[in-house]
């Protein structure tokens, strides 16, 4: 069964289709968008090795031909260099204004290709085929596209909504356990920010879905995407509510920066640790009960996930340096750092009224 979540954005509304076997059906799914039977695919090279032939035959089954460009896996690909290479390649392929570009990979490829589609010929349509759990539940939905700068992550980009998202649940079976659990950090985030029932459901079903239960995986993706679609539908460009999706991310971005955006800390791992730190900070500020952070940490630990700063291998800078990195985060407004804090599980809110000394003490304790 295919679940369909509509992202309600007026004349730019689109479907996120979630289910098994979508790669094999890609031709039929994408054909209605095409003005001529060909597409350009930009793929993560690891994903391409595993799944590009399946996508090619899924498209060919409806007479659609494809050209493809493979890019290296990893955060380093979200750079000016790979961005300009991708745009020039799309022009070399004579991609026209009415054509469709496909992003085939995880969050890095989705963000980069979406940004390339946003600027190519002043904007062409694109389809997201997210292949990581993180990309299926978060980055492929909502139209945030972009690349990184030496000044920080995602500082260069555009809002450009895809025309369709195909989240094939079978593909998740080829992820490493670590990559799957990293994406699960973003799934947990949804429960923590706005749906206590979903968090409770994850406490019960998380271990089985991590072990491979496909029905539970599809349900977790569907519920996550539905929450994101609802929020994006109300606040596409993050004037307010959408910022809740950044729960844990200010801590996460500082930790990713401190670890050099490398294998020491995957993004979703940083989100999970960041959520635990956001709950701890909220508890110390008297905004939520002391039990809430303990319950969050207990679930992350039960899932075998990185939960605490001490779970990150290697040395980390001190609390002052991490605070400095947090101040570089793009969620600064009028010189004040905006945090997503919580009143409890499923009840997040945005505030600029957070005492930096409390944040620093949370970080110092976590580092000691
Ligand atoms: N990943 C956060 C957002 O899309 O707003």
Describe the protein in words.
The protein has 2 domains: 3-174, Rossmann fold; 180-367, Dehydroquinate synthase-like, alpha domain (Up-down Bundle). Helix content is 46%, strand content 19%. It contains 13 helices and 13 strands. Helix 3 packs across helix 4. Helix 4 links the parallel strand 5 and strand 6 (125-130). The strands form 4 sheets. Strands 1-2-9-6-5-3-4 form a 7-stranded mixed β-sheet, sandwiched between helices. The chain has 368 residues and is α/β, with parallel strands linked by helices. The structure holds glycine (GLY). The site of glycine (GLY) has 5 residues, from loops.
Alpha carbon gap, first and last residue: 49 Å
* Structural class by sheet pairing and helices: alpha/beta
CATH class membership of the largest domain: Mainly Alpha
Strand proportion: 15-25%
Strand order of the largest sheet: 1-2-9-6-5-3-4
Summarize model confidence as the mean pLDDT. Answer: 95
Query: What is the count of DSSP helices, taking H or I runs of 4+ residues?
Result: 13
Query: If you compute it from the alpha carbons, what radius of gyration comes out, rounded to the nearest whole angstrom?
Result: 20 Å
Q: Mind telling me the CATH superfamily name of the largest domain? A: Dehydroquinate synthase-like - alpha domain
Secondary-structure arrangement, i.e. CATH architecture of the largest domain: Up-down Bundle
Which ligands does the model contain, each kind named once? glycine
Main beta sheet strand tally, sense and closure = 7 strands, mixed
Q: How many domains make up the 3D coordinates?
A: 2
Question: Helix-strand pattern, N to C?
Answer: EEHEHEHEHEHEEEHHHHHHHEEEEH
Model regions low in confidence, pLDDT < 50 over at least 5 residues: none
């Amino acid at each position: 069964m295919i679940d369909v979540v509509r992202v309600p954005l007026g004349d730019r509304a689109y479907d996120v289709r979630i289910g098994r076997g979508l790669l094999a059906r890609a031709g039929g799914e994408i054909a209605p968008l095409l003005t001529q039977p060909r597409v350009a695919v930009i793929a993560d090279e690891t994903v391409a090795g595993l799944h590009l032939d399946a996508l090619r035959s899924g498209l060919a089954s409806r007479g659609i031909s494809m050209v493809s460009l493979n890019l290296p896996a990893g955060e380093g690909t979200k750079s000016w260099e790979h961005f300009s290479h991708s745009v020039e390649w799309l022009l070399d392929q004579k991609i026209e204004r009415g054509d469709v570009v496909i992003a085939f990979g995880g969050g890095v490829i989705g963000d980069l290709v979406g940004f390339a589609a946003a600027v190519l010929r002043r904007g062409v349509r694109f389809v997201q085929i997210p292949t990581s759990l993180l990309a299926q539940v978060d980055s492929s939905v909502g139209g945030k596209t972009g690349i990184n700068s030496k000044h920080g992550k995602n500082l260069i980009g555009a809002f450009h909504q895809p025309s369709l998202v195909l989240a094939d649940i079978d593909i998740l079976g080829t992820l490493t356990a670590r990559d799957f659990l990293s994406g699960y950090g973003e799934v947990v985030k949804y429960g923590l920010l706005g749906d206590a029932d979903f968090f409770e459901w994850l406490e019960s079903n998380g271990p089985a879905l991590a072990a491979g239960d496909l029905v539970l995986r599809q349900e977790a993706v569907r519920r996550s995407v539905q929450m994101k679609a609802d929020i994006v539908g109300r606040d596409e460009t993050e004037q307010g509510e959408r910022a809740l999706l950044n729960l844990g991310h200010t801590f996460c971005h500082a930790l990713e920066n401190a670890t050099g955006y490398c294998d020491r800390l995957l993004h979703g791992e940083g989100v999970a640790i960041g959520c635990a730190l956001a709950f701890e900070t909220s508890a110390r500020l008297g905004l939520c009960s002391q039990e809430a952070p303990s319950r969050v940490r207990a679930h992350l630990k039960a899932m075998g996930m990185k939960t605490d700063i001490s779970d990150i291998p290697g040395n980390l800078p001190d609390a002052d340096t991490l605070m400095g990195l947090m101040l570089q985060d793009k969620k600064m407004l009028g010189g004040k750092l905006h945090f997503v804090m919580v009143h409890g599980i499923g009840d997040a809110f945005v505030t600029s009224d957070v005492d930096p000394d409390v944040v620093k003490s949370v970080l110092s304790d976590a580092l000691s």
